[in-house]
Design goal:
Order of helices and strands: HHHEEHHEHEHHEEHH
Largest sheet: 6 strands, mixed
Distance between the termini: 36 Å
Strand content: 5-15%
CATH class: Alpha Beta
Shape: globular
CATH architecture: 3-Layer(aba) Sandwich
Length: 236
């Protein structure tokens, strides 16, 4: 290997792609998980109050999913985050712990964040639906619509600069489009809220659970992460 090739290889490894693409498992949850409101380094008290009120609203909403789920799963991360990651719905591990993305898909999401020099404390993580659907099935259109107002309120409270949509359910909920994931990813979209005086850059990518089943799409997901990383770098 010549000197130029060695430098290129070193650059790729340092960029994070080698770490993200590897398939070996890593346990990110050896240490006791903190409660969502304690996970940020500095807490915006106004936002914390708003999110607690919202959580109470979700608890009071009578969803059929409550009958089969164990714990309500709303968010993890930083209420002042610039980036909000939105998934589909809680799975078994999330249902047990009441925290989004703590199972195998959550471990992969942590690797994805680390690959672009971020941690869970740097971002806000949530799902479209806040109760686990039975047998981890995909949420129905009716369930997506029922929980969408709660998701929109989370966006208004956090007021991120970027939304990173993990999978087709999140893309359908936020972008209100029939287009496939393949046609949506690889470009910037915009999300607008009547409550926010700004447009939020939105990126669509694959759900980590899908990447675990289909690792050949990891490189495409890495490209989507690089779009986010470049935008964040340009803001600093």
């Amino acid at each position: 290997m010549n000197q130029s090739d060695k430098k290129n290889l070193e650059f790729i490894k340092n960029s994070g792609v080698n770490y993200f693409l590897q398939d070996s498992p890593r346990n990110w949850f050896d240490k006791q998980q903190k409660a969502p409101e304690d996970s940020a380094n500095s807490i915006n008290e106004d936002k914390l109050l708003e999110i607690r009120i919202l959580i109470d609203e979700i608890k009071k909403y009578q969803s059929p999913l409550q009958k089969t789920a164990k714990k309500l799963v709303v968010y993890d991360g930083n209420l002042d985050a610039k980036v909000m990651f939105i998934g589909e719905a809680p799975g078994r591990d999330e249902d047990e712990q009441g925290i989004p993305f703590v199972g195998r898909a959550g471990q992969l999401l942590n690797k994805m964040l680390n690959a672009i020099k971020l941690t869970r404390n740097d971002v806000y993580i949530t799902n479209v639906v806040n109760w686990r659907p039975p047998e981890n099935r995909t949420p129905t259109d009716e369930e997506i619509l029922a929980f969408l107002p709660f998701l929109q309120k989370q966006i208004n409270i956090v007021s991120p600069d970027f939304l990173f949509l993990l999978g087709g359910v999140a893309a359908k909920a936020i972008l209100s489009t029939p287009l496939t994931l393949a046609k949506l990813r690889g470009k910037l979209h915009e999300y607008e809220s009547m409550q926010l005086n700004k447009k939020i850059h939105t990126i669509v990518s694959y759900h980590p659970a899908f990447l675990l089943r289909s690792p050949q799409y990891k490189r495409a997901a890495w490209e989507d992460l690089q779009i986010l990383q470049q935008k964040l770098d340009n803001e600093t």
